[in-house]
Design goal:
Layout (H helix, E strand, L loop, with lengths): L3 E5 L7 H15 L4 E5 L11 E2 L12 E6 L4 H7 L4 E6 L13 H16 L6 E2 L4 H9 L23 H12 L4 E5 L8 H14 L5 E5 L5 H13 L6 E3 L5 H10 L2 E4 L8 H8 L4 E4 L4 H5 L4 E3 L4 H13 L1 H17 L2 H12 L6 H5 L3
Parallel strand pairs: 1-2, 1-4, 2-3, 4-5, 5-6, 7-8, 7-10, 8-9, 10-11, 11-12
Helix pairs in contact: 5-8, 6-7, 6-11
Length: 368
């Protein structure tokens, strides 16, 4: 059997790209395949075993299958482009540079670099594994040959790690005072449009209630964007209603998912959006703006917001928390969607996609 080795920029808590790589490794190991993960930089807070990518140059075998997770600019892409082993690209999506240009020119340039790397790897790649059809279309446009959609492999047991008593208490206290807990999980970054979420909260509190709280779970990508968000909250007189968590532990994240009333997502560019699936696993109804891969990931399990303006979003926010019949229907749809994107189902898709390169996986994929 051929070795299947993965390359990913980092392996840290809360990173969907690294999490997908870890679950792929576990899935391959379960099939008796030899696998390993290489990273651009070994960090002190790394989760899972991995070694620096340059080590591969002295550990390689000619028949290796190399899987590269592309979501950001990385020296790994340039390293792999010059090698001859079979290459598989897992495409997580690259955020267009226009979202970063007003805030951070270095970050914007990095996105342009990443897209150039994605294009340059097209003729070198044997198989593309985009995590969504939305991403698949981009790969096809760039000249990638064979592509197969393999959704993110998410292990729901991550939410069995416990909860945080302080967060649980705060959410219960809000609810006892009639304050709705709205949640959004994701790095504070312009394409995820937390500025629109705060504007929507302002509209919601004026139209329906002045007591609702918006919990923004995620670290800021820049001080400038964080200050911008705080200025908007102050201008709209909801600065006391926005909870900037600045990042959370696994236990705190579990508590926010389990204790909130609804997940609201107004992101303008996503290649998959893992938090939508995480919300479903925690029985938390979702209302999200219909952009990029959002509708594809939701699969009908939630409210799709067609117009991204504060009042339209406020109406959706009210419906998702007050219409019990709608909430019941959404939760039923969530269960169906979770079956479609279950770990076992996505593993089967992965095995099937890779079976052409490693025939031993064909048995597990049911491929004749």
């Amino acid at each position: 059997m051929r070795r299947i080795l993965q390359f990913v920029p980092t392996l840290v808590q809360g990173d969907a790209t690294g999490g997908h790589a870890l679950m792929i490794a576990k899935s391959l190991e379960a099939m008796g395949l030899e696998t390993k993960i290489y990273v651009e930089e070994v960090k002190s807070n790394q989760i899972g075993g991995a070694t620096r990518f340059t080590n591969y140059a002295r550990e390689n075998r000619p028949d290796d299958i190399l899987i590269y997770h592309l979501a950001a600019p990385s020296a790994i892409a340039d390293f792999l482009s010059s090698r001859s082993e079979t290459l598989v690209v897992v495409y997580h999506n690259i955020t267009p540079s226009r979202f970063f240009e007003p805030w951070d020119q270095v970050a914007a340039t990095g996105q342009i670099w990443a897209r150039a790397q994605l294009s340059r790897l097209a003729p070198r790649t044997t198989l593309g594994l985009p995590v969504s059809k939305f991403n698949q279309e981009e790969l096809i446009e760039l000249g990638y040959g064979e592509t197969r959609v393999v959704p993110i492999l998410l292990d729901p047991s991550v939410f069995a790690s416990g909860s945080d008593e302080k967060v649980d208490c705060a959410l219960r206290e809000n609810r006892s005072r009639g304050r709705t807990n709205f949640l959004f999980v994701g790095r504070l970054v312009p394409n995820k449009a937390q500025h629109n979420l705060i504007a929507a909260l302002g509209a919601y509190n004026k139209i329906y209630s002045r007591e609702a709280i918006l919990h923004l779970v995620g670290r800021p990508f820049s001080r400038e964007y964080l200050m911008f968000l705080k200025e908007i909250a102050k201008k709209l007189e909801v600065e006391e209603n926005v909870n900037f968590t600045m990042g959370v532990s696994a236990e705190e994240l579990s508590s926010y998912y389990k204790g909130s009333d609804a997940m609201i997502c107004l992101s303008e560019h996503e290649g998959f959006c893992v938090p939508l699936l995480e919300a479903m696993y925690n029985d938390l109804p979702v209302a999200a703006f219909n952009s990029s891969a959002i509708a594809e990931t939701m699969g009908g399990a939630g409210i799709l917001i067609q117009k991204n303006d504060p009042v339209t979003t406020a109406v959706a926010m009210d419906r998702i928390v007050t219409d019990n019949q709608l909430r019941s229907f959404v939760k039923d749809q969530m269960k169906l969607r979770l079956e479609q994107l279950s770990l076992s189902a996505c593993r089967h898709t992965l095995y099937e996609a890779l079976s052409g390169l490693e025939p031993s996986l064909a048995i597990h994929a049911g491929v004749k």
